């Protein structure tokens, strides 16, 4: 780490552009729920002992997740700005929509979408504060990032109508579905426009489209209803020279060609559910892989040695000196402490596998 000369921003850009980064960008995200599950001292010590992953954690009290006001609370259903009623089984973990505001199309005539000037679709936002934060980050030479809320289009439609209803709408070509899609796109387009006007380096489009063995929507229906919306939402950012970052959990192998045709620069997909070999054979060299490290099998249930082996294998199979690989791990409750430490150790170690 002493030999690092590039800023974090420049190194990320080089990794995405296949322009010989100094190291593999690694992100270790601690979910808010972890602060209720693990002793705070354990997480604070983890951050302090891994300065490469947590460069901001110079003070013992640095606990950024605790500063966020999260609406997900057990026993306290909350209504989002779209009118969806959510419930969760664990504080800090996104739950499920229990009441869909447009489960009956009869409610659509009087339905009003939220105002993108004051909300991102989940919580209230202040664009003045966002602008100031972006300018501060630019002044500090940091990567500036904007993006749509997770679940911005397909999942938003599911939240509004319900999953089965939405699929039947698509199959039937329901006339109101087109109007609803246009409304959701109009909201998202305004969010994109504002971030592009603020001059961010990267725009993120996060949406879970996959299940364990395949996508939640067929490629045919995706091409008909969702793909064109994605393309229009990405176009202003692409025209402005932004890096385009796409995310989806689940198995999305059948949709990858549809996603990447829109000029995506980096794609964040899960490792084991899609298959390391499949990712290598279909994505490496074609797009920067922002690899989402397993949270279902090895990291919560195996050993530190196997965790180290997994990270090494993924770096060796998917990485190169030229770049094209980033990695991210999301820590959630339930992972043994020794495995948490092993993950952080391995991510710091193998970030420099191709360095020097």
UniProtKB/TrEMBL annotation:
Is Transferase tagged as a keyword? yes
- List the keywords (alphabetical): Methyltransferase, Transferase
- Write out the GO MF terms: methyltransferase activity; uroporphyrinogen decarboxylase activity
A biological process (GO) annotation for this entry?
methylation
Q: Which InterPro entries match?
A: Methanogen_methyltrans (IPR052024), UROD/MetE-like_sf (IPR038071), Uroporphyrinogen_deCOase (IPR000257)
Domain of life, per lineage: Bacteria
Whether Transferase counts among this entry's keywords is: yes
Ranges for domain Uroporphyrinogen decarboxylase (URO-D) come to 140-350
Q: What is this protein called?
A: Methylcobalamin:coenzyme M methyltransferase
Q: Which organism is it from?
A: Anaerohalosphaera lusitana
Organism lineage reads as:
Bacteria, Pseudomonadati, Planctomycetota, Phycisphaerae, Sedimentisphaerales
């Amino acid at each position: 780490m002493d030999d690092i000369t590039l800023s974090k921003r420049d190194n990320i850009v080089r990794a995405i552009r296949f322009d010989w980064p100094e190291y593999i960008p690694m992100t270790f995200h601690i979910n808010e729920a972890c602060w209720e599950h693990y002793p705070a001292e354990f997480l604070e010590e983890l951050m302090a002992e891994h300065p490469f992953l947590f460069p901001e954690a110079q003070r013992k009290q640095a606990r950024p997740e605790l500063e966020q006001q999260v609406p997900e609370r057990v026993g306290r259903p909350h209504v989002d700005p779209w009118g969806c009623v959510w419930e969760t089984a664990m504080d800090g973990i996104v739950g499920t929509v229990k009441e869909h505001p447009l489960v009956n199309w009869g409610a659509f005539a009087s339905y009003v979408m939220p105002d993108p000037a004051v909300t991102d679709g989940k919580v209230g936002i202040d664009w003045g504060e966002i602008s100031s934060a972006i300018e501060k980050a630019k002044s500090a030479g940091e990567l500036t990032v904007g993006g749509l809320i997770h679940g911005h289009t397909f999942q938003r439609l599911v939240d509004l109508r319900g999953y089965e209803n939405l699929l039947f709408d698509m199959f039937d070509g329901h006339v109101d579905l087109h109007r609803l899609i246009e409304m959701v796109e109009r909201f998202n387009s305004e969010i994109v426009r504002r971030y592009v006007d603020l001059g961010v380096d990267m725009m993120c489009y996060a949406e879970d489209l996959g299940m364990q063995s395949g996508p939640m929507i067929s490629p045919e229906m995706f091409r008909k209803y969702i793909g064109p919306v994605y393309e229009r939402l990405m176009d202003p950012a692409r025209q402005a020279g932004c890096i385009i970052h796409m995310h989806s959990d689940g198995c999305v192998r059948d949709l990858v060609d549809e996603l990447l045709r829109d000029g995506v620069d980096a794609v964040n997909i899960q490792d084991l559910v899609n298959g390391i070999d499949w990712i290598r054979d279909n994505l490496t060299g074609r797009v920067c892989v922002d690899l989402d490290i397993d949270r279902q099998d090895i990291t919560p249930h195996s050993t530190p040695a196997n965790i180290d082996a997994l990270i090494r294998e993924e770096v060796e199979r998917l990485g190169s000196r030229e770049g094209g690989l980033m990695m991210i791990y999301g820590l959630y409750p339930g992972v043994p402490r020794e495995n948490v430490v092993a993950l952080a150790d391995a991510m710091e170690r193998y970030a420099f596998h191709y360095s020097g």
